[in-house]
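Suppose you are handed a protein chain with no further information: no name, no annotation, nothing but its sequence. What can you learn? This example shows the usual starting point.
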Amino acid sequence: MNKKVLILGGGESGCGAAVLAKKKGWNVMLSDAKAIAPARKALLDNLGISYEENGHSKDLLNDCDLIIKSPGIPETAPLIKEAISKNISWEDEIEFAARYASGKTIGITGSNGKTTTTLWTYDIFKRAGLDVGLAGNVGKSWAAQLAEGDKDYWVLELSSFQIDGLRKFAPDVAVLCNITDDHLDRYQYKVENYAKSKLSLLEKQKAGQFAIINADDALTQKYLDRALISSTIFEFSVEKQNTAAKLNADNIEFHLTTNSLIMSIHDLALHGKHNVQNAMAAGIAANLLNIRKEAVRESLQQFEGIPHRLEFVASVHGIEFINDSKATNVNSTWWALESADKPVIWIVGGVDKGNDYSSLVPLVQEKVKSIICLGKENHKILEAFSGVIPTIVETASAKQAVETAYQLGKKGECVLLSPACASFDLFENYEDRGNQFKEAVRSL
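A reasonable first move is to predict its three-dimensional structure. Written in structure tokens, the prediction is:
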């Protein structure tokens, strides 16, 4: 082949694309504006892949046939704009990986619940004994895994950033969990732009493919009317009855085939209205690909959930500590507060992504006793809740936040880390934030 591919970004996505491209005969160059982790440099060195770090050289685009960029790099980045001006094609790792995948694909996106739904769907397929891989926005990059070998099925979590980098690829089954105000800083602070990104995954599908959507989600339904979708749509709902999965009293009912499945919500491994919806989406996806219902039922009853999402950490002198660090937007935190059944000491804050906290005010009034800010810039939180909650404390570390919460708490109350914000002001990522929170709780 000997065509030159330029990989922009030396993280999980970029290095994965570089490994796959090298194996498929491309002439690979990887460039990162920042430092590349030592382990990733060792990987590139072992494979003989050229790379540079801490900046892009001026002649980087010379003789370049294709650019694969990491999803965190926007189309407006100077190097991408220069490539466009020179008619050099670009795409993201998911699109590039799809060239070399032949298995059935399930692509799952949404502002909230996509990781849980992705892992739940993957769990169903594993329990059914199928040859299935897990990739995308969770775990190891799809490209890196395809360099090792293909699978019969791939369950992919897809962020809006990853969807933006797609050209032709569309999953055989697409799941849109919901649309809420998230990542608006990337979308000109316009929810319609963000919604368009999410729905474009469905618009890329063809007749004969399937789309699964949330009939209860107002923004999904609003912008669905503006989308051009050729695939067959199946809906799930906890409020409506004419859907592929519905709630009838306390029972979830799946009615896609004559071999329907009915099970009590009390038998679900994960509780809360949002997890009923996640279970419905995963169950429909499995049903559409003819997974035996015994595997679906077993998974819905036994799936263990994911770290950092409403994760019970410990009970210290009767005070529960819950790690919901993965709640990086307002809607995700809304679900966490909605599911609380004890007075809450709420730890919130971080990098604001254009948040509007007004939707949380009624829940906060009803359920929250005290607020602890965990971030460098808390003015929007203080502005939103100063007249609502009498006790608001600012802290600068997970340890300080946990110790303050413990001092404020009483037996029978709950300390909930549900930040509604990104983590990059004080932490490496939401996992680091959650892990530091858990460590601080265990040190009490």
